[in-house]
Structure of SAM-dependent methyltransferase:
Amino acid sequence: MNVPLPLPALSPDESAHSERLVQRIGAAIEAAGGWISFERFMEMALYEPGLGYYSAGATKLGSEGDFVTAPEISPLFSRCLANQCVQVLDAVAGGQVLELGAGSGVMAADVLSELDQQGKAPSRYLILEVSADLRERQRSLLQHRVPHLIERIEWLDSLPEEFRGVLIANEVLDALPVQRFRIRGLQVNQLGVTWQFGRLEWSEVHADAALESAVREIEFNLGEPFADGYTSEINLRLQPWIAGIGASMREGAALFIDYGLPRRQYYAPNRSQGTMLCHFRHRFHDDPLINVGVQDIGSWVDFTAVAESAVAAGMSVAGYTTQAHFLIGTGIEQFLAPKDDEDLAGRLQMARQAMLLTLPGEMGERFKVIGLSKGLELPLRGFGVRDLAASL
């Protein structure tokens, strides 16, 4: 039996920062009449200007942060992604790359480096980043890593009106604010947050019409009702968010990499407490009401919902597979081939990195890749080894 490790204590600065955000959320709860939805809480905890996890200045990624993403583990991930970008860019004349939520900027730097090495660097590399702090970190890293390409990089506040090329987003979908629901007998309840005696507390009310309808639709799709007490998440913002991407894209493909499952697995009876996952200094837990503003909050992705939203937005599902199969399909073996000037230590390190990215017990199966396309009749190579789209 695995016993969770205790969470590290907050530093004085972290405690003060968290308390400021908690007080602001408390004020928002009181202004709303004493209760806000979990979706609103998650939005404030992650994105509240100056205080939210992604809006404040602490290091988020890497060994000094709270979690490590695939691009931080190894450039192999981004180089394979670049190979997929090349295929799309070759098919879309004058295509650009658009990255959503570029984190530290490491993926952008490695993708651009590989594209440049192949002579395929796009005229524009666009980054849509809502955090001013992360923008500056990205700009600094990219100026250092790819100074000769910095003039091609442009930061955006919103999706471009028209876009042709390839959109890439790693661990973005899981950070979209979600609603939480709980079944009470025959009733659907909505989980939210109250402010009691200076503390944030869970509370639930009868779900509003939109949430109840969405939960009932899932039950209909599954062919059976949820059991009493069943608790989970649903992203009601996903469809309009994907619709915005579909409206912006004229021709090209979008690639989303994240941890998640098809709907039948996501809402399986044994997953009765949902998929909420918080990250704090490389420890994982499921309580988003603690360490507010200094920990990441996310939920697993219902990839069936992503596919349905894409079709509703006039896009096609180009493929769905595990991260391992996507990396194999996009040529990870070519980057692992021995080089004349490479020492044994370097080769061993790269082999270890490849295992972290592809092994089932690591990131290989937990993370999935879904491809969406529009105006592009092209079988994407990343889904050529094994396409699991039928499971959606």
